[in-house]
């Protein structure tokens, strides 16, 4: 039984800790946020992730999973220290490594036994070496038997446990292959492909993967915008493309663009790394521009359909950046709400999980108890996040209670013909609804 300390008890750390405990390891999850740790100890999850509460409870009961906000306790006799702290965007788009540095310093100060430091946070290429340097310098000559392994995380919020337990691959990078091989043993029960590389390559695999997925979404969104103007349906275009095995169907859903805690900051950080090293990341720049524009196009569609936005009531369905999570970081819905409010619109919204977080940062929004309250007296209804419960709404009822009949289906979830037959003015994304005869989303 290996002893693991997982530092950072957020989306990645908590899922990682609970899953490794479930695989038979002794795990202690650590966080500087004492309130968070106290709540998890009582079974109150700091995040919404399907299945997590049960998995945590089960493994606490088994005695394999515990929590602490005390580094001394967490790192005591740990064979592995997993770093799973946040790496948000800094001012210029670079990854902010202050939290990773704090962890490295704590390890240097508190550990005196052999340890493998496994980095799960998404960090710029070269950070593994930087972490090793911090630890060495801080030891100031006091020897410590340690090695750094990069183990980028690919889990998706909303299906994180399943993604952890059945990964497509596990990537482990280190200058010390033996340490990478020891870390690989932790994943052996999962029987998945394990790729062992050098440190920098592993770090790059994570950025390249996220940038590629973001590129696919921006690509199909650009195609969607062209479809809008030319009268084609992007949902069928994507299917027609995706059935080609060389292309594949995933990440070809046109919509309001990508958001969340990873793609925006990771694409930005990769572009920043490129510029820093004298390369022009032209494609990445375009991928980000298209994404930004996608939100604005939604606002243009609404403005045109309503003949202006001032004093209009817009109902928003879905606030989290995607379904099955309460994460609102860089959520398209919130950006669209900002744009609409800047033009004088009143917003009423509903989300199955994300409303407590939104209430804290956007007090001017009226939060509703269900989709029908959102539709009540609204001039337009916008679907921003495709939660399951929005798939089968009673549109007869919605037609009766809305003030106007404009529907912007930002995730192409509903059937345009049905809604149009019912009298709604339906807009999807790339479903042949010409908005202005040109593609200028900035134009008013
Ligand atoms: P998060 O914000 O949910 O959690 C980070 C946690 O780290 C917080 O609870 C915070 O209190 C804690 N923390 C910060 N500084 C600390 C310190 N010095 N010591 C102990 N704890 C500290 O972040 P997240 O979404 O879990 O992301 C973590 C990393 O994993 C990021 O680099 C992210 O890019 C990467 N990642 C995230 C996902 C995802 O879906 N969320 C997927 C893959 C990779």
Which hetero ligands occur in this complex?
Answer: nicotinamide-adenine-dinucleotide
What would you call the shape?
globular
Strand content: 5-15%
Largest sheet: 6 strands, parallel
- Please count the beta strands (DSSP E, at least 2 residues each): 14
The CATH superfamily of the largest domain is identified as: NAD(P)-binding Rossmann-like Domain
CATH level-1 class of the largest domain: Alpha Beta
Low-confidence stretches: 438-444
Lateral strand order in the biggest sheet: 3-2-1-4-5-6
Structural class assignment: alpha/beta
Number of domains: 2
Mean pLDDT: 95
N-to-C CA distance: 63 Å
Number of helical segments?
Answer: 17
Helix content: 40-55%
- Radius of gyration, in Å, reads 24 Å
Which key features would you list for this structure?
6-stranded parallel β-sheet, 44% helix, alpha/beta, Rossmann fold, disordered C terminus, 444 residues
In short:
With 444 residues, this protein is an alpha/beta fold.
Please, could you describe this protein's structure?
This protein is an alpha/beta fold and 444 residues long. The protein has two domains: 3-196, Rossmann fold (3-Layer(aba) Sandwich); 212-427, Rossmann fold (3-Layer(aba) Sandwich). Helices cover 44% and strands 13% of the residues. It is built from 17 helices and 14 strands. It has helices spanning 11-22, 34-41, 52-61, 71-75, 98-110, 127-139, 160-165, 177-187, 199-230, 234-242, 263-276, 282-306, 332-342, 355-361, 371-375, 395-401, 416-421, and strands at 3-7, 26-30, 65-68, 80-83, 115-119, 146-150, 170-173, 194-197, 313-317, 346-350, 366-367, 380-383, 406-409, 425-427. α16 (395-401) links the parallel β12 (380-383) and β13 (406-409). The termini are far apart. Residues 7-13, 30-33, 36, 84-87, 99, 102-103, 120-122, 153, 155, 157, 261-262 line the site of nicotinamide-adenine-dinucleotide (NAD).
């Amino acid at each position: 039984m290996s002893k693991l300390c997982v530092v950072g008890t957020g989306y990645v750390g908590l899922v990682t800790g609970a899953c490794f405990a479930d695989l038979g390891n002794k795990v202690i999850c650590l966080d500087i946020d004492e309130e968070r740790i106290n709540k998890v100890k009582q079974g109150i999850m700091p995040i919404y992730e399907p299945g997590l509460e049960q998995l945590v409870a089960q493994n606490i009961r088994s005695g394999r999973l515990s929590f602490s906000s005390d580094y001394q306790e967490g790192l005591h006799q740990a064979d592995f220290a997993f770093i799973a702290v946040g790496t948000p965007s800094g001012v210029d788009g670079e990854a902010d490594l202050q939290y990773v540095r704090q962890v490295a310093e704590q390890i240097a100060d508190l550990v005196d036994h052999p340890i493998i430091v496994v980095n799960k946070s998404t960090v710029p290429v070269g950070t593994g070496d930087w972490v090793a340097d911090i630890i060495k310098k801080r030891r100031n000559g006091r020897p410590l038997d340690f090695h750094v392994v990069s183990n980028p995380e690919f889990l998706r919020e909303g299906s994180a446990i399943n993604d952890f337990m059945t990964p497509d691959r596990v990537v482990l990078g280190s200058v010390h292959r033996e340490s990478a091989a020891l870390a690989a043993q932790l994943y052996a029960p999962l029987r998945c492909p394990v790729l062992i590389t050098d440190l920098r390559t592993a770090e790059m695999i994570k950025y390249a993967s996220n940038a590629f997925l973001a590129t696919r979404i921006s690509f199909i969104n650009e195609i969607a915008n062209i479809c809008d103007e030319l009268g084609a349906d992007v949902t069928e275009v994507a299917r027609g493309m995706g059935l080609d095995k060389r292309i594949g169907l995933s990440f070809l859903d046109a919509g309001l663009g990508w958001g969340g805690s990873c793609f925006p900051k990771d694409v930005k950080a990769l572009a920043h790394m490129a510029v820093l090293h004298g390369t022009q990341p032209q494609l990445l720049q375009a991928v980000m521009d298209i994404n930004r524009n996608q939100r604005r196009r939604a606002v243009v569609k609404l403005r045109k359909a309503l003949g202006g936005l001032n004093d209009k009531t817009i109902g928003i369905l879905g606030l989290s950046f995607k379904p099955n999570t309460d994460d609102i970081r860089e959520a398209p819905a919130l950006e669209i709400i900002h744009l609409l409010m800047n033009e004088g619109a009143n917003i009423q919204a509903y989300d199955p999980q994300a409303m407590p977080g939104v209430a804290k940062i956007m007090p001017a929004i009226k939060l509703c108890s269900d989709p029908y309250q959102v539709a009540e007296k609204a001039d337009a209804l916008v679907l921003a996040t495709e939660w399951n419960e929005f798939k089968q709404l009673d549109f007869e009822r919605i037609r009766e209670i809305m003030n106007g009949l404009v529907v912007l289906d930002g995730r192409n979830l509903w059937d345009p013909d049905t809604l149009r037959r019912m009298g709604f003015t339906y807009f999807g994304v790339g479903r042949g609804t010409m908005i202005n005869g040109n593609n200028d989303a900035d134009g008013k």
